[in-house]
Amino acid sequence: MQETAAPLALLWHRTDLRLSDHPALCAAAQACSGRVLGVVVLPELTRASPRRLGYLLQTLDELRAAWRSQGSALIVLRGKVHERLPALAADLGVREVHTAPCPAFDEQLENSAVRQALAAHSITLVVHDEVTLIAAADLPFAIDALPEVFSNFRRAVERGGAWGALVREPLAECALTTVPESSAALAEAQTDATLAAEDLCAARAAAQCHDPRSSFQYVGGRSHALARIRHWFWDTDAIAQYKHTRDGLIGADFSSRLSPWLALGAVSPREVAKEIHRYERERIANESTYWLGFELLWRDYFHFWVRRWGSRAFAARGVRGRTPCGRQDADLFDRWCRGTTGEPFVDAAMRELAATGQLSNRARQNVASWLTRTAGIDWRWGAAWFEQQLLDFDVGPNWGNWQYVAGVGNDPRNRVFNVQAQAERYDPNGAYQARWLE
């Protein structure tokens, strides 16, 4: 008697656009004997700029090739996810859809809608709670008891040893089984129809356009993330000087520049942590190598923070209910977006952001402080503009940092920047301002 083939499972990709170190994929493969198809659902309308959307499409191109190399396929759809995903799952006869969590409030609502729609077809949504450096289950406290300030969070996760003690080893890429040709053909047909859309073609063109004033050009996809790690860690040893260069404004190597790849999940934070530890074993361990891990912890904190606070992470009064600066001056905000405020350091940074989708940490803090504390504009307007423009937009870090700067977040310090003094300190010769204001 011929054995019945195992059913298909779907892996619903969101900000986990890789096949390595992927707990949700491994669980799906184990449940369905490796017969897994990937799926991404792009919204018809997006808040992302064409450049940011194009960067996503570059990442999907590599992910699609990775699925093909495993004998499977990646399906890319457009529309409302709670409609398109359940319909696809029902057509394919899958029993389970696996996904990694997106912890923010809107994404939680999206999860609920998708779960309900799948249940109408007797399909289960399985959410795997592991997208951070430290898995939520390994934290020494519940998410609802997340420390209110980062320093307390760091001390808690470092208690009894370095932060690396709580970081699990990255998972190897799990083995998949070739899916039926009919399923793969469906994936290819639906994906080709989606990606041929006129606005997506324009987004690809925007992502490929390089401004000559920029010292670095991002290309989406896992291979480019791994190449950046090799260059910044091993070819240049730039990681060993990071603590002293991280406030740079011009140049390719003053920071790791890994955040856009981390934001889309082309590489995982655990994979980066593993590379840090290997570098420390084989070359040197110093305050700079620690500092990169320290910033991965900050990223974790904000992921847990946005999950902990839900809708209050996006509220005008912030998580502490403080009275914010809330001036509703659309003209001044527009001049900030375009880099025409008349404040040279701010204008240079905002023009770099508009032209490249990139902005250094030092510049981000200054433009955010100027908008919220000097101009008194509603901090949520700035956070939304960053969400639209930044290649490395990541919901928790973006909205959490804006709350901090605006004085409505958890940080007890007063984050008001003297922009002129900052320019004199970090751009003493005016080279950065000259580059972007020419």
List the helices and strands and how they pair.
Layout: E1 9-12, H1 23-31, E2 36-42, H2 50-69, E3 74-78, H3 81-92, E4 96-99, H4 105-119, E5 124-127, H5 150-158, H6 181-195, H7 198-208, H8 222-235, H9 242-245, H10 259-264, H11 269-282, H12 287-309, H13 330-338, H14 344-356, H15 361-374, H16 379-389, H17 395-406, H18 419-426, H19 431-437
Parallel strand pairs: 1-2, 1-4, 2-3, 4-5
Structural description of this entry:
By secondary structure, the chain is mainly alpha-helical. It is built from 19 helices and 5 strands. The protein has helices at 23-31, 50-69, 81-92, 105-119, 150-158, 181-195, 198-208, 222-235, 242-245, 259-264, 269-282, 287-309, 330-338, 344-356, 361-374, 379-389, 395-406, 419-426, 431-437; strands spanning 9-12, 36-42, 74-78, 96-99, 124-127. Helix 16 runs antiparallel to helix 17. The termini are far apart. The model has no long low-confidence stretch (mean pLDDT 93).
Characteristics:
438 residues, mainly alpha, DNA Cyclobutane Dipyrimidine Photolyase, subunit A, domain 3, 19 helices
